[in-house]
Amino acid sequence: MDQLANLLEGFSVALTPMNLVFLLIGAILGTAVGVLPGLGSAMAVALLLPITFSLDPTGAFIMFASIYFGGLFGDSTSGILLNTPGNSSAIATSFEGHRMAKDGRAAKALGTAAIGAFTGGIIATTLVVFLSPYLVLLATLFGPAEYFALAAFAFVAISAVVAESVVRGLIALGIGLSLAMVGIDGQSGAARFTLGMPEFFDGISIIVVTVGLLAMGEVLHVASRIHREDPRAQVKTHGSPYLNWREFKQAFPAFLRGTSFGLPFGAIPVGGSEVPTFLAYGTEKKLAKRRGDTMFGTRGAIQGVAGPEAAGNATAGTAMGALLALGLPTSATAAMMLAAFQQYGMQPGPLLFERSADLVWPLLASLFVGLVMLLIINLPFASVWAKLLLVPKHYLYAGVAVFSVFGVYAIASSMKDLWLLVAIGVLGFVMRRFAIPLAPVLIAAILGPLAETELRRALAVSEGDMAILVGSPITVSLYSVMAVAILISVVQHVRHRRQAAAIPEKVTAAG
């Protein structure tokens, strides 16, 4: 009960008028920066960090909390409306969310995302308050072999489940791994696939890959078809962002499933919320196939937005717990938060709750208040954001291209990144033309370096003994589930081929 008493005391600080103003300002600014393509939640914290230097530590940390979640809310907005997620954590949400927007349900998609983000964030933050000591135990269970198994599981799950064709899924996975291999090898220091150009020594930024494939690829795809569409066709943006009872019953289980995916991933350093959001998306797609849901993958399904969005914010919530309890930043955004804490002389870790309780508990309380405030801000304004789709396509996607270029250039002020943006945009356009899925490329580009590093680290520890890769219950469980998933996927694909082959025979016999 000590946690509850400390949390109530934290609320007494967080709910003072001035701190509520800081929360409101941070929520608005974080959302606004998160919406911009190529920037996202991590950049929101980085860009807005200097404005907190003049505040007292409590006010600064409270503003950090709302910027932290505000950026995550903003990440999905541009992804849903323009297929241009502000950060890689919103990629999975963009798939079905953008389809809903094109179907005239943009406000509903944004409303679903807001509720999903709120649900995942609230549950995760509640668990952080009461279960933070156990996060230490969870993090210590994972070594190099477990991280590699987790990455391999993500590769197979995304390639086999999200992709309609296993072959196309593996092709996309290979493209992503190829992009991830460019740069200096972290173990040996050797340059790989750089064409002898120093500009490629740092590798290809995941922001460039994400914005290139999703934003520029979409711009080129739309441009190639713009004269084939009826210019008199009206885009529908009306509709309420609030879910009716039937829609809520559809979304609620997806909220819970997505949250359950996100909770454990925030405590382990696997690169952020990309893995749980893609796993949540893949799960919802699999369940949609079982129940014969024709909305998924065509007009856009609410569950495809609800699951990944809840997973992303649940991961962010437990990532904050891992940061405070362990001093372990498990994502880029959490790393920026760690820099902010250190700026004020705070060192997150096991002793933080004892030494700086007067700062930690108001921060945790402000996470709850900030999430409620963001829901109040974002839900009613979803219909306003949806009006962006009324802008004529040639203006709208020209704006997307401009903001994408600005966002990518802001990362490192490099012309190399702009040329890569165009090249990867062309790649995204070609992949759309040949129905090659984008998700495996993105997950491979994100987790490829982690998988390689952890594999080599595990083999170095075991002196080359491959048995270390299956030397713990966690790795055995992950590989077992992966084998079952592959087997089920192969059986289903064979069955679908037989059914497709049987249809022409029946037609011929009937004729």
Automatic annotation (TrEMBL):
Chain ranges of the DUF112 domain: 20-442
Keywords: Membrane, Transmembrane, Transmembrane helix
Top-level division of the source organism's lineage: Bacteria
Transmembrane feature ranges: 20-49, 109-131, 137-158, 165-184, 204-223, 359-382, 394-412, 419-447, 467-491
Short name of any one Pfam family annotated for the protein: TctA
Alphabetized InterPro entries for the sequence: DUF112_TM
Listed name of the protein: Putative tricarboxylic transport membrane protein
Protein source organism: Cryobacterium roopkundense
